[in-house]
Amino acid sequence: MRNAVGGFLAALLGSCLIALLLTLPRTVYPYPFDMVWLLLAGGAALQTTAAGLLNLDTTLVYFAVWLVIGLLISPFSKSNWNSVRTAVWTSIFLALFATVSAVLLDPLFWTSGARNARLIEFFATCLLFAPLALAAAVPLRVSVVRLRRKEAPSPESIRTVCECGAVFKSRPMLCSECGRALMVGDSRKTQSPN
To answer: What is the pLDDT of residues 146-164, one digit of tens each?
Structure first.
């Protein structure tokens, strides 16, 4: 559920952001959908990311929007796999926005023979570009995890004593005096200083 909410919010804000940055002309949708024209037109624009990336005038805009989408999905992810799931949800919502836009702009879309191919195209292209969001989501999530993690305090001193009487201020595997193994498996003959 958290991934779906993150995907919806990222798709919502990413669609609006691309429409504003590209200064898309106001698309005329039937009432009441004209109130969310920014969302629908932006979803359709993000669905055409391939063309946008190949156009030198809009390449940076598309990359920037996908990176912002990645920054938006990062707080909803607790692991790398969660980031991928949230990116997939984002692409599903973007494909839905693009589909609704196509249906509202072309009433014959739903009854046309090419409908299924176009639907597959909408969802496949959105899924294809979802990894662009991961370029920002995964490093940000890893950074946040590292900042939140508390390191175990280092011991004040380490003292290892061999049976021959040699004392080390480290954890050697073998005694340098007699050659005995001081470490067997994970157990060491370590004493805390008294």
So the answer is: 888 877 776 677 778 888 8
Residue-level length of the chain: 194
**Distance (Å, whole) CA 175 – CA 160:** 10
User: In sequence order, which residues have a C-beta less than 8 Å from that of residue 167 and are 6 or more positions away?
Assistant: 159, 160, 161
The most distant pair of C-alpha atoms in the chain lies apart, rounded to whole Å, by 91
Closest CA to 103 of 32, 46, 48, 29: 29
**pLDDT tens column, 52-97:** 777 888 888 888 888 898 888 888 877 778 888 888 888 899 889 8
Q: pLDDT at position 184, please?
A: 59
Helix (H), strand (E) at residue 128: helix 115-128
Determine if the peptide bond prior to 32 is cis (ω within 30°).
Answer: yes
Cβ atoms of 65 and 18 closer than 8 Å: yes
Q: List, in sequence order, every residue forming a beta bridge with 191; answer none if it has no partner.
A: 159
This prediction's pTM: 0.69
